[in-house]
Structure formats: C-alpha cells, structure tokens
C-alpha cells in the first residue's frame, strides 16, 4: 500500500484537500493517494480501526477536561434512551396515527394509496436484486487474515457506463457500480469489467457451428486503456497487446489540436492511489479497439469496519443495470445465442435462436446444413444479468 | 437535493424549536425530540433498499446544518439531530454520516469550541459518535456523478438559522476602522507638511472628506442596528402569527411560505426590470425574459427534439450503412466465408418513438 503519511509529506497533503471546481458537479484534480494520507494524518487509530468491536468508552473525563462525576452524568444524560418516549413500545412497521411529522403524514398517505391500488405487496425482482447486490458483501471478513483490507485504505466508487446505443437508453445511460481499493492496480479493475464485446465471436459459422467458441474476442484482442487526466494507461501485460492510444495521441499532436500534451503509461504499473483525477468527472475505458465505456469516480473515502474487508472480493460489483434479453424466436424462452441473415427457414431477417432450436431447425441428424442461411454467434447484452 | 418530501420541513421545525428554546443543552433537545416522536420518522412499511436510501438522505440533510454558515446553536442542534437520526435508524448496518476532508478542520474547531466553553454534553455526543465510528471520512460531502443541469436546484435552507454575521460586518471590522483612522491621520499630517500653512492643509489638497472614517463607522453601526431590528421584527411576527393561530397551524405555515414567496417574487421582479427593452431596430437582439423554470423547460424540450432529430438521422445513416454493408457482404460472401458481422436491427419496442419522426423526414 502506498503512502503511510511520513512527515515529509505534510506539505503535499495540504494541497490534496479536494474541493469543487464546479459546485455539486465535479472537483479539482487531486492525487488520490494524497487524500488518504491527508485523512490518516488528521485521524487517530480509533477512527481508522477496523476491529469488530468499538473501543471501550474510557478516558471521557480526561479527553473533555471535566470531572469524573460529570463524565458519569453525561453518559446518563446523553444516552440514546433519552430520545425514546417512555410510554409504549411501538412496532416500526406501523406509522403512529397522531404524528406531527410531515414526512410521516406524506408517507402514510402514499402507503394508503398503494394499499388501495396494489394487489400483491412485495418487492419486485429488480428491487430484490438491487438490494442483494448492494448489500451482499457488507461486513464480510476474509477467512485468511492475510487478505484483510488494511486500515486507512481508500475505497473508490466507480460508475462504469455501458456503451449502449439503444434508443430507449438515450436519457438514462445504464451503468454498473464498482467498489475498488486505492491500492489495487488498474489492471485489476480492467479484468473485472464484464462487457459483451469481449465475448463476441467474429465471423460466419453456418457450415461449422461447433468451431465458433474458439474465436472469442477476449482471447484475440487483449489491448485496452483507461484515460484519466491526459494520460492513457495502456494494458501491456501480454506481448500481443497493442498501444491503442497511439492513434489518438498522434492525431492530437499532428496538428496541435489544443489537447495539450497527452501521455501514455502502462496500466499494470499504476494503482488508484497513484492517479490524479477529479471526482465526478467523466473518463474513459476503451477495449476491443473501439468499445468505449465512460467511467466516473463518484466517491472516494476511507474504508470502514462495516464495509467488505476481504481484499479478494474487490473490485466489488454493487450495482448493475438489468438489460432486457432477446429470446429465441422458436421457444421464446431461452436467451438467443445465434442470429441468422437471409435465412430461408426463418420468418424474419434477422432472426434469433437459442443453441438447441438453432441446431434442430438448421441441421439434420448428421449435422448437415439445411437450406440457405448465414449464421453468426450472438452474445446478448443481458447475459450478465 | 432532498427528494424525500417533508423531511426538510420536519428537521427545520425541530431545529427551529431548539433555536427558540435558546439553549444548547441536550436535555432540552431530547425533550423536543420526544415531543415530536422524531424516532418514528423511520417507521412505516419501508423495504430495506428504500430504508437505506431514506436514512442516507436524512443524515445528509442534517449534516449540512452541522457546518458553517449556520449559527453555533443550530450547529449544536444539528449535531444532536445527527446523533438522534444515526442512533434510531433501523438500517443494518447503520448508514454513516459523511464528512468531507475540506470540512474536517471546521468540525475539529467546533469540537474544540465546545470543550473550551464547557458544553460537555455536545462535546460528549460528538465524541460518542466518533468512537462508535459513525462517520465515513470522504473526499467530498456527496457522491458526484456529473449530472448536467437536470438536477441542479437551489438549496433553500432557512435563513434564520444562519449566523447574522454578514459581508458588511466581516469587511468593516474594528481593526479595519482603526487602521483607516491611522491612515487618515497620517494622510492629514502629510498634507499639512507640504502645505504653506503648516497647521492646516491647503484647500487644493482637500480631495477627501475629513470625517469619512467617522461616517463609515456610523453607517456600519446603523446597518447593524437595522439588521438586528429586522431580525427581531421577523421573530416577533412569527410569534404573533403562531400564538393566535394555535389551532390552525396551516395558516402560519402558509403565511411564512407566502412571505418567502413574496421575497422571491420581489427579487425576480427586480431582475426582470433590470433588463432594458431594446430599441426597435435592435428587437432581434432583445434579451429574453423567461421565468427561470419555464425557460429551462423550453431549452430542454428544444434540445431534446434536436437530439431526437439528430439521433434519427444518425440511425438512418447507420441503417443505410448497414444495408450497404449488407450488400457488400453478399457480394463478398461468395468469395470469402469468414468475413463480416451479422445484421442486427434494434428491438421493436425501442424503435416505436422513432418511427413517426423518420417517416416525416422521408416525406420531405
């Protein structure tokens, strides 16, 4: 983990207090690691502690500079019980009738309206899924203490947008939300991003449908880059990786287009702590040559003992968009795996099939092709649901 | 910013009552909290996802009163409110209070102030929250996701909660006045020195009013008095409103609301009248006077329709490109087998709104 807050870094940390560049929208550029150092310097071990149990309440008197009796009295006067009315124990499901709170009156009305109109009162599948995604890893601790997240580690929240061009998404671009640790490498995030374009299979396979799986794009084209604040971080882990950013940089330099001095670096050499960026500002992840995902860092904060503390579970997916799947035209049940064009056996062009129906319809028992058609493997964007 | 209806009103009512009680004791706050059964704010049939969201919103709202520019008393009230909301929420694990790094020095100073002025209950509660690790130490107070214009609305919090200190007072402090006085003396002496009559400056050098520092001081004082009087009037008016209408809460709320509305209307009116009507020859350059909301609506709808048409054209181009590609492919297909990608059109449902637009275009 980078940093540790040496005294020589005090000056650097002072500059690292992020603030708005445009209010409520995005911040000025700052170094992610310096934010962590800034907090660690200002806080004490009890604040950073990831232990399950909170520290015992001692030394109140000493810390506040009051008498011991006062401290004891404070404990009684300021207890949470003071906020609970003594008369009755209430069911949290029921809103009290005579509430003076506007929030509750509004909520009550909404609930009554729902009761009148709704038939079955339960969470819909999407809502259950969303809650499940959000909370499944909360409070998880690793079996092996080596995998425990370090105290004072930073936690980044990233929104990664899908590069969809569907008309129905023109107002709300779907995205997934991922939590990453400051000390993680960019490549760890890169490997965790699942995108259908990695699973695409190029080519037409009507005469040899069994060979299709050998041509998955992920295996063939491994290049990718992140773009943050004027620097392209290229994935160069494999010899066959190409510098995808070169074209852009050359284009920018060729006519002095006013994009400043764009640079490139190796993705595998950088952790999030090493980056300088703005919170709330759109950046880019590009893979498969031209599959472009907008990336926004929406939040950075210190890790908390209630968070998932198993380092291996990061980058942690906590939200994803539920995409509609295209179903097989024959069985109308399974997600499409094949698409055909100019198909003499199909009523539509293009026409979608699941694997079973596709083979049943288009090939005889010996696997010979029947009729005229072009067949392409199809990867549905909804397969990650 | 707060999309939970009523929540802000409830919090402000509680803080307002606390302000009126003219104390910073937690005991009094707890009394007010119990009177309102504020813990019940988390009650009702809410499912887990919604519950988390609500608790987050409530803490975010309360946290804003905890920081300047709010008056000391309100900030103490906000600390108690945070403590109450944090401890009585029903989420498991509890939602945390977000503190941004840039606000932290202010928070620490506040805690120091509390201890120094021996407000032990408030200091104890802050310490208790910290020991309970109720805070998320963040980079920024909120999550930022580059929402453009859509959601940027003014945060209208209660003016009365803010410190009465203002720009005039912060600009013209005693020190500044003293400094000015010194400079003025010095200036006067210099003028005497270079004048013919050493006891009194030349008339030609009289470029500034002699008693200007005194005047400035008087004006500042007057302003301060006026402000205090206004505050008092405002509070009295509120009381007067509330006492006779004990039963009908609605009217007092309405009058308060209408007061704000009037103030807003006045501001609006002033900004309207500030735009000078252009002469006829320049009518085409006339500055547009749309009311703020309808104006933004107008812009939005226009830009949307523009986007629509652009999009449809693009999709048309794309389609035609696809068709062309398709044709190319059929020509090529006979030669090579392995090239090419399938032709996939978008799903019907998503195209529905597009259809009439493209049709209209084609007719042209």
UniProtKB/TrEMBL annotation, chain A:
<dbReference type="Pfam" id="PF12251">
    <property type="entry name" value="SNAPC3"/>
</dbReference>
<dbReference type="InterPro" id="IPR022042">
    <property type="entry name" value="snRNA-activating_su3"/>
</dbReference>
<comment type="function">
    <text>Part of the SNAPc complex required for the transcription of both RNA polymerase II and III small-nuclear RNA genes. Binds to the proximal sequence element (PSE), a non-TATA-box basal promoter element common to these 2 types of genes. Recruits TBP and BRF2 to the U6 snRNA TATA box.</text>
</comment>
<keyword id="KW-0805">Transcription regulation</keyword>
<keyword id="KW-0539">Nucleus</keyword>
<comment type="subunit">
    <text>Part of the SNAPc complex composed of 5 subunits: SNAPC1, SNAPC2, SNAPC3, SNAPC4 and SNAPC5. SNAPC3 interacts with SNAPC1.</text>
</comment>
<comment type="similarity">
    <text>Belongs to the SNAPC3/SRD2 family.</text>
</comment>
<keyword id="KW-0804">Transcription</keyword>
<keyword id="KW-0238">DNA-binding</keyword>
<protein>
    <recommendedName>
        <fullName>snRNA-activating protein complex subunit 3</fullName>
    </recommendedName>
</protein>
Automatic annotation (TrEMBL), chain B:
<feature type="compositionally biased region" description="Basic and acidic residues">
    <location>
        <begin position="316"/>
        <end position="336"/>
    </location>
</feature>
<dbReference type="InterPro" id="IPR019188">
    <property type="entry name" value="SNAPC1"/>
</dbReference>
<dbReference type="GO" id="GO:0019185">
    <property type="term" value="C:snRNA-activating protein complex"/>
</dbReference>
<dbReference type="Pfam" id="PF09808">
    <property type="entry name" value="SNAPC1"/>
</dbReference>
<dbReference type="GO" id="GO:0042795">
    <property type="term" value="P:snRNA transcription by RNA polymerase II"/>
</dbReference>
<dbReference type="GO" id="GO:0043565">
    <property type="term" value="F:sequence-specific DNA binding"/>
</dbReference>
<feature type="compositionally biased region" description="Low complexity">
    <location>
        <begin position="292"/>
        <end position="302"/>
    </location>
</feature>
<dbReference type="GO" id="GO:0042796">
    <property type="term" value="P:snRNA transcription by RNA polymerase III"/>
</dbReference>
<feature type="region of interest" description="Disordered">
    <location>
        <begin position="279"/>
        <end position="364"/>
    </location>
</feature>
<protein>
    <recommendedName>
        <fullName>SNPC1 protein</fullName>
    </recommendedName>
</protein>
<feature type="compositionally biased region" description="Acidic residues">
    <location>
        <begin position="345"/>
        <end position="355"/>
    </location>
</feature>
């Amino acid at each position: 983990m980078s940093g540790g807050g040496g005294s020589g870094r005090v000056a650097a940390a002072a500059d690292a207090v992020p603030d708005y560049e445009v209010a409520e929208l995005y911040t000025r550029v700052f170094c992610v690691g310096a934010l962590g150092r800034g907090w660690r310097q200002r806080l004490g071990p009890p604040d950073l502690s990831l232990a399950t149990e909170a520290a015992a309440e001692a030394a109140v008197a000493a810390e506040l500079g009051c008498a011991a009796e006062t401290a004891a009295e404070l404990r009684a006067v300021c207890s949470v019980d003071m906020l609970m009315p003594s008369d009755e124990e209430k069911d949290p499901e029921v809103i009290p009738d005579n509430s003076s709170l506007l929030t509750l009156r509004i909520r009550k009305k909404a609930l009554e309206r729902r009761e009148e109109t709704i038939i079955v009162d339960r969470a819909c599948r999407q809502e259950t899924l969303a809650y499940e995604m959000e909370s499944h890893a909360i409070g998880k601790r690793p079996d092996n203490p080596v995998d425990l997240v370090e105290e004072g580690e930073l936690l980044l929240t990233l929104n990664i947008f899908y590069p969809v061009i569907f008309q129905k998404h023109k107002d709300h671009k779907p995205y997934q939300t991922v939590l990453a640790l400051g000390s993680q490498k960019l490549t760890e995030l890169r490997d965790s991003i699942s995108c259908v374009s990695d699973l695409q299979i190029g080519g037409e396979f009507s005469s040899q449908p069994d060979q299709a799986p050998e041509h998955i794009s992920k295996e063939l084209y491994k290049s990718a880059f992140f773009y943050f604040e004027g620097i392209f971080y290229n994935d160069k882990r494999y010899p066959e990786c190409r510098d995808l950013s070169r074209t852009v940089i050359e284009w920018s330099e060729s006519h002095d287009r006013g994009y400043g001095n764009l640079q490139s670096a190796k993705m595998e050499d950088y952790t999030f702590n090493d980056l300088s960026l703005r919170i709330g500002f759109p950046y880019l992840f590009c893979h498969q040559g031209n599959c472009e995902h907008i990336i926004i860092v929406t939040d950075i904060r210190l890790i908390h003992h209630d968070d998932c503390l198993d380092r291996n579970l990061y980058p942690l997916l906590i939200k994803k968009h539920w995409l509609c799947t295209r179903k097989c035209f024959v069985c109308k049940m399974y997600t499409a795996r094949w698409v055909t064009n100019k198909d003499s056996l199909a009523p539509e062009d293009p026409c979608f099939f699941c694997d079973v129906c596709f083979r049943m319809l288009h090939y005889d028992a010996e696997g010979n092709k029947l009729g005229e058609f072009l067949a392409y493997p199809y990867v549905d964007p909804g397969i990650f649901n | 910013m707060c999309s939970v209806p009523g929540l802000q009103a409830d919090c402000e009512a509680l803080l307002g009552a606390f302000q009126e009680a003219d104390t910073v004791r937690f005991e009094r706050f707890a009394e007010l909290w119990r009177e309102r059964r504020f813990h019940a704010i988390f009650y009702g049939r809410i499912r887990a996802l919604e519950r988390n969201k609500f608790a987050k919103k409530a803490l975010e709202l309360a946290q804003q009163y905890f920081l300047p520019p709010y008056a000391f008393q309100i900030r103490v009230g906000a600390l108690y409110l945070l403590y109450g909301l944090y401890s009585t929420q029903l989420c498991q694990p509890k939602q945390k209070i977000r503190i941004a790094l840039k606000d932290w020095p202010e928070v620490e100073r506040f805690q120091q102030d509390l201890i120094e002025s021996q407000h032990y209950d408030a200091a104890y509660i802050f310490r208790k929250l910290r020991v309970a690790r109720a805070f998320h130490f963040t980079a920024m107070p909120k999550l930022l996701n580059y929402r453009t214009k859509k959601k940027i609305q003014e945060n209208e919090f209660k003016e009365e909660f803010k410190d009465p200190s203002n720009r005039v007072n912060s600009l013209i402090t005693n020190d500044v006045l003293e400094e000015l006085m010194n400079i003025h003396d010095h200036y006067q002496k210099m003028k005497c020195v270079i004048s013919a009559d050493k006891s009194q400056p030349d008339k030609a050098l009289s470029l500034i009013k002699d008693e200007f520092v005194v005047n400035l001081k008087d004006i500042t004082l007057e302003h301060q008095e006026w402000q205090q009087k206004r505050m008092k009037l405002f509070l009295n008016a509120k009381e007067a409103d509330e006492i006779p209408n004990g039963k009908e809460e609605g009217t007092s709320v309405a009058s308060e609301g209408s007061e704000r509305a009037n103030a807003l209307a006045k501001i609006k009116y002033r900004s309207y009248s500030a735009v000078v009507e252009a002469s006829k020859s320049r009518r085409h350059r006339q500055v547009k006077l749309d009311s703020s909301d309808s104006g933004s609506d107008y812009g939005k709808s226009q830009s949307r329709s523009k986007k629509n048409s652009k999009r449809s054209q693009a999709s048309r181009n794309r389609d035609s490109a696809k068709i062309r590609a398709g044709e190319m492919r059929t020509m090529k297909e006979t030669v090579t087998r392995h090239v090419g990608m399938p032709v996939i059109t978008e799903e019907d449902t998503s195209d529905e709104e597009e259809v009439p637009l493209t049709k209209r275009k084609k007719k042209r």
